[in-house]
Specification:
Blueprint (H helix, E strand, L loop, with lengths): L13 E5 L28 H13 L4 E5 L9 H9 L6 E6 L4 H11 L3 E5 L5 H8 L4 H11 L8 E7 L8 H11 L2 E6 L17 H12 L3 E2 L8 E5 L6 E5 L12 E4 L4 E3 L8 E2 L1 H5 L4 H13 L19 H4 L2
Parallel strand pairs: 1-2, 1-10, 2-3, 3-4, 4-5, 5-6, 6-9
Antiparallel strand pairs: 7-8, 8-9, 10-11, 11-12
Length: 330
């Protein structure tokens, strides 16, 4: 079968599937304190529907799938979905992004189901700051979940993603570095993006990856670049002694759109070809109306062909995405 490519020649290998729009946190950069209007159960794709679309995507060249939310672990029986997806021939990697609060209970079932990689969102190691940002006093549970994950070496690497915000992140950069060097977690900072529900994002609030790198190098000396796949979102580094890995995801200051190989499927079955897309392609309706595999693949291939060139953040042409991050899926 012909590879899945867009009109700019980018080959699409990575699919992120949101399995719920709900979340048990209320992070200030993501959603209001009272939450958002949640999707109705009938609007959300079933596991059977997700599995079918995933199988078709893999047959078209998708090699990596990441499950996201909202918070994916609030949906029931996630290990069952993981088990289904792991059986898809040709799928090289199956990962999940979570806030970690339910990992203590679910780390073992996820490992036994076949999960291979995981990202844990963790923006602060200080209880008061964590509670202020997430509007939930749950730092201890997240750290316990990370400890539990360490017991299952089939899930590696364990990545920690921290949103980098000026005036919030700087004082803890070295604490996160020490965690990476002591625990072996891969710590990555993600520049703050305009995907917040309250639309309070300002360019002045961005703490760039270069600035965080400078804080680290002032303490540890020059970081050593690590080579990876050109389509990776993170610029990866280790330390001069080879102990620990950190990374910087810089979609605002150093956009990586030219090598983007990602598409997204929302919980309600909409295909998005860019995180900041203002249009979506409906897969749920044809899926539930009896469309054949060939018809669904044709719809996917057409949508991918029209994938956006770039997100235009910082450009006068930039337009906010038509959904917030919790509704899109990370």
């Amino acid at each position: 079968m012909d590879p899945l490519v867009d009109s700019y020649g980018r080959r699409i290998r990575n699919l992120r599937i949101s399995i719920t729009d709900k979340c048990n946190f209320r992070c200030t950069y993501c959603m209001p304190a009272e939450g958002l209007p949640w999707l109705k159960k009938a609007e959300i794709l079933t596991y059977e529907e997700i599995e079918r679309l995933a199988r078709l995507a893999v047959s078209m060249g998708i090699e990596q799938i990441r499950l996201t939310g909202g918070e994916p672990l609030v949906r029931r029986d996630v290990p069952d979905l993981v088990r289904r997806l792991r059986q898809i021939e040709g799928l090289r990697s199956l990962s999940l992004t979570t806030n970690g609060v339910l990992l203590k209970q679910l780390a073992r079932p996820l490992a036994e189901a076949g999960l291979t990689r995981i990202n844990v969102s963790l923006d602060s190691l200080l209880r008061e700051k964590f509670a202020r940002l997430t509007r939930r006093d749950q730092l201890d549970r997240v750290l316990e979940g990370l400890e539990e994950l360490e017991r299952y070496p089939t899930i590696r690497p364990i990545k920690i993603n921290a949103v980098a915000m000026r005036g919030f992140t700087e004082e803890e950069v070295l604490d996160f570095v020490r965690l990476a060097r002591r625990k072996g977690y891969v710590v990555r900072w993600i520049e703050f993006m305009p995907l917040d529900a309250d639309q309070i994002w300002r360019k002045e609030d961005i703490l760039t990856g270069a600035e965080i790198k400078a804080i680290i190098e002032a303490e540890y000396g020059p970081l050593v670049p690590l080579r990876g796949d050109p389509s990776e979102t993170a610029r990866r580094y280790t330390f001069s002694d080879g102990v620990g890995e950190v990374g910087f995801i810089n979609p605002v200051s150093e956009p990586f759109c030219s090598t983007c190989d990602r598409i997204r499927l929302t919980a309600d079955g909409q295909l998005r070809t860019c995180l900041f897309a203002t249009e979506e392609t409906d897969l749920r309706t044809p899926l539930r109306s009896g469309a054949s595999d060939e018809e669904l693949m044709a719809i996917i291939r057409s949508a991918v062909w029209h994938k956006e060139l770039k997100h235009y953040i910082g450009d006068k042409r930039f337009r906010r995405a038509n959904r917030t991050m919790s509704m899109i899926g990370g």
